[in-house]
UniProtKB/TrEMBL annotation:
SUPFAM superfamilies: Nucleotide-diphospho-sugar transferases
Identification of the protein by name: Glycosyltransferase family 2 protein
PANTHER family noted in UniProt: UNDECAPRENYL-PHOSPHATE 4-DEOXY-4-FORMAMIDO-L-ARABINOSE TRANSFERASE (PTHR48090:SF3), UNDECAPRENYL-PHOSPHATE 4-DEOXY-4-FORMAMIDO-L-ARABINOSE TRANSFERASE-RELATED (PTHR48090)
Keywords: Cell membrane, Glycosyltransferase, Lipopolysaccharide biosynthesis, Membrane, Transferase, Transmembrane, Transmembrane helix
Annotated ranges, domain Glycosyltransferase 2-like: 13-176
Record's signal peptide: none
Species assigned in the record: Lysobacter arenosi
Length: 249
């Protein structure tokens, strides 16, 4: 049964970037609604990064049965970070939850992140709750590459985050939109939030095998791009400055 469409701004926006994920769209959308209906007011913002299959048509058809669903379409392929950012810009919620569109993140973990946020309510400086895949369901080579990348990143950026590449995160929309934007920035959100003066925490979450479709990345292109990105983020952190301000009465 679908929920009635609500025109008021929701408390939470779930942003999901997708590219060529037509078979994963409907199952994931229904899992999100199952996890959140009755828990909080929410919307789902899918950002189609100019898919070459019929992902966009599947999403458009789903809107008729899922009133919380909104669909944003890139007229040219622009990458995951741009899709996440455009989804956050279009979102109406004060807080944002992100999920990868391949179904490997479990929407049932979103309430866990919300509970973690609510339990830390007195700490207004805590702006990001990052998923931590403690039981990765990827190939051995992919898990090895991820451990290697995380170790190098942690050494260079000192962001105290064991799994910055996990797609499921919860963060404050306003804080995110203040961060410097660049391609692949979604992989460095904890470090960027900390650079801005905010605190972050990692939360263990579920991770699932991909049931359909193929990965859009390989270990080599991740590594080559990651080296350049790490140097850039390290430079940003070195050059960053946070200054407390107060207005005189």
């Amino acid at each position: 049964m679908s929920a009635p469409r609500i025109d008021t701004a929701p408390q939470l926006s779930v942003v999901v970037p997708v590219f060529n994920e037509r078979d994963n769209v409907a199952p994931l959308v229904h899992e999100i609604t199952a996890a959140l209906r009755g828990r909080t007011d929410f919307e789902i913002v899918y950002v189609d990064d100019h898919s070459r299959d019929d992902t966009l048509q599947v999403l458009q058809a789903l809107k008729a049965e899922v009133p919380e669903l909104r669909v944003i379409h890139h007229v040219t392929q622009s990458g995951q970070s741009t899709a996440v950012r455009n989804g956050v810009k279009a979102a109406r919620g004060t807080w944002i939850a992100t999920l990868d569109g391949d179904g490997q993140n479990d929407p049932a973990d979103i309430p866990k992140l919300l509970d973690k946020r609510d339990s830390a309510g007195a700490d207004e400086g805590l702006k990001l709750f990052a998923g931590w895949r403690v039981n990765r369901q990827d190939s051995g080579s992919k898990r090895w590459a991820s451990r290697w990348a995380n170790a190098i990143r942690s050494r260079m950026l000192r962001d105290d985050t064991p799994d910055t590449g996990c797609g499921i995160k919860l963060f404050e929309r306003a804080a995110f939109l203040e961060l410097p934007y660049f391609d692949h920035m979604h992989r460095y959100l904890p470090a960027l939030m900390q650079r801005a003066g905010w605190k972050t925490v990692s939360v263990p979450v579920n991770h699932r095998s991909r049931s359909t479709g193929v990965s859009k990345y390989n270990n080599l292109n991740r590594a080559l791009v990651g080296i350049s990105d790490l140097r850039g983020v390290a430079w940003l952190i070195k050059r960053g400055k946070v200054t407390a301000v107060r207005e005189l009465s």
